[in-house]
Amino acid sequence: MMTTQLPVHVPVLLQEVLDNLLLPPGARMLDLTLGLGGHAEALLARADAQSRYLGVDRDPVARQLAQQRLAGDPRLSVLARTYEELWSDAGFLAWRAEHASEGFDAILADLGVSTLQLRTPERGFSFRDNGPLDMRMDPDHGLSAREWIAEQTDESLANAIYQFGEERASRPIARAILGALQEGRLETTHDLARAVYRVIPREPAKRKGHSDPATRTFQAIRIAVNGELERLGASLEAAIEQLRPGGRLAVISFHSLEDRIVKQTLRRLAGIYDGPGRTAPVELPRILKLVHPGGIAPSEAEASANPPSRSARLRVAERLP
Ligand SMILES: C[S@@+](CC[C@H](N)C(=O)[O-])C[C@H]1O[C@@H](n2cnc3c(N)ncnc32)[C@H](O)[C@@H]1O
């Protein structure tokens, strides 16, 4: 059951997205992570009546709320898909053939979880509010976090916590989590947090700048459960192929692992060699240009007004002819 008092998701780096995605008359826009439609609403407000907007999200609650928010806007279509499976999907190909046969002018990917997901206890993403240990962005598909943990060994769980959470105490934390599971004490998000606190005790009064010890483990398990990094690079490459010349892709990432994949993918497609040695063994094809090579971080004002934006980074690339 969902809570009726739904949390608000404030779109991150909104002005920067609006400044960087260029909308010609009759713009064709693709939003790979529609969420609650915050970016969509602002982009549609700038676009003319002939424009079309395709919003994709794997979360049924987000899709429903976005549709309510943008109710009656005939320019919007919504697809229930993951962006990994979108590109060969019949529904997507039919929409593109009808509305965007020459490609897209603007594609947005605002990665990760929404505040709605994080702050709805029943979704099981948060160590602050207690809820079932779920963490699926699409609750109708795949394994819940508890089911996923039950399939892990000490080693595979420790590896995931280390790789996706950059948690140095991954091994003892993995043992504590699987120990709690065996004792029948791993049903809720608070149970998972308690297993972490057994290894890294929580300070009674949180010191400024110190995050909760459970943050990294929750991030890691969420990334693993949703396969968040598995095909991100390939999906961005597929998105770039959908741009018409001069069209732009904007990607917002929220942690260094995500940003590294975004940065490496875009740099490679911009013909920039980052491998070992000074020169590439073969010349890299250059199909895009980087609009802000270093990426864009939120202003201090945004970071303090909307703390979840603090770790965000926007990268923008433009498709070359
Ligand atoms: C940060 S929120 C987007 C918020 C949105 N830009 C707004 O302003 O309301 C990210 C959204 O992406 C969705 N999402 C994450 N990974 C996805 C994937 N692989 N395919 C489709 N949607 C995904 C999540 O369900 C979530 O609703």
Keywords:
seven-stranded mixed beta sheet, alpha/beta, 13 helices, 321 residues, 7 strands, globular, binds S-adenosylmethionine, 39% helix
Structural class: alpha/beta
User: For the CA atoms, what is the radius of gyration?
Assistant: 20 Å
Q: Total helix count?
A: 13
Name the ligand types.
S-adenosylmethionine
Read across the widest sheet, the strand sequence of neighbours is 3-2-1-4-5-7-6
Shape: globular
Low-confidence stretches: none
Query: Whole-number average pLDDT?
Result: 94
Q: How far is the N terminus from the C terminus?
A: 49 Å
Instruction: Report the β-strand fraction as a percent range.
Output: 5-15%
Query: What is the helical fraction, as a range of percent?
Result: 25-40%
Total strands: the figure is: 7
Order of helices and strands: HEHEHEHEHHHHHHHEHEHE
Sheet with most strands = 7 strands, mixed
Summarize the structure.
The chain is an alpha/beta fold. It has helices at 14-20, 38-46, 60-69, 90-99, 115-119, 145-150, 154-165, 170-182, 189-199, 215-226, 232-241, 256-269, 300-305, and strands at residues 28-31, 52-57, 76-80, 104-110, 243-253, 288-290, 313-319. The protein has a 7-stranded mixed sheet, with helices on both faces.
